[in-house]
């Protein structure tokens, strides 16, 4: 079993804080597809803006979406929230 801890907006979208994923192994990509399927078609689940850690190590420092997650691993998924418009920041002519 793989334990998935959800934090931030993804926790609200999925409606759970912890999911026990009943597979021996999977990839981060497959895990994200699983989470999409649990979101009931919510368009606010943006998998491009998530921090994913496997046993405390960010997946991008491993093999990214191809990172293998195994039975006994703890995966933490955090929605990254940011905003603003780049062109608004640099629109002033006083720079």
* CA-based gyration radius: 16 Å
CATH superfamily, by name, is: Beta-grasp domain
User: Total strand count, please?
Assistant: 7
User: What is the percentage of strand-forming residues?
Assistant: 25-35%
Attribute tags:
single chain, 95 residues, alpha+beta, two-stranded antiparallel ribbon, 3 helices, 7 strands, 31% strand
Layout: helices, strands, pairs:
Elements: E1 2-7, H1 9-14, E2 18-21, E3 25-27, H2 28-38, E4 50-54, E5 57-58, E6 68-70, E7 74-79, H3 86-89
Parallel strand pairs: 1-7
Antiparallel strand pairs: 1-2, 3-6, 4-5, 4-7
What can you see in these coordinates?
It contains 3 helices and 7 strands, in the order E-H-E-E-H-E-E-E-E-H. It is α+β, with helices and mostly antiparallel strands. It has a single domain, classed as Ubiquitin-like (UB roll) (Roll), CATH 3.10.20. The protein is globular. The relative contact order is 0.26.
Quick overview:
The protein has 95 residues and is an alpha+beta fold. The protein contains three helices and seven strands; from the N terminus they run βαββαββββα. It has one domain: Beta-grasp domain (Ubiquitin-like (UB roll)), CATH 3.10.20.30.
């Amino acid at each position: 079993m793989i334990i998935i801890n959800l934090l931030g907006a993804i926790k609200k979208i999925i409606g759970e804080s912890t999911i026990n994923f009943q597979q021996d192994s999977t990839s981060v990509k497959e895990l994200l597809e699983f989470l999409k399927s649990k979101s009931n078609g919510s368009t606010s689940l943006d998998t491009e803006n998530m921090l994913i850690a496997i046993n405390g190590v960010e997946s991008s420092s491993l093999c990214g979406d191809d990172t293998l997650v195994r039975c006994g691993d703890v995966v933490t998924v955090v929605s990254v929230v940011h905003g603003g418009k780049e062109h608004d920041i640099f629109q002033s002519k006083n720079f």
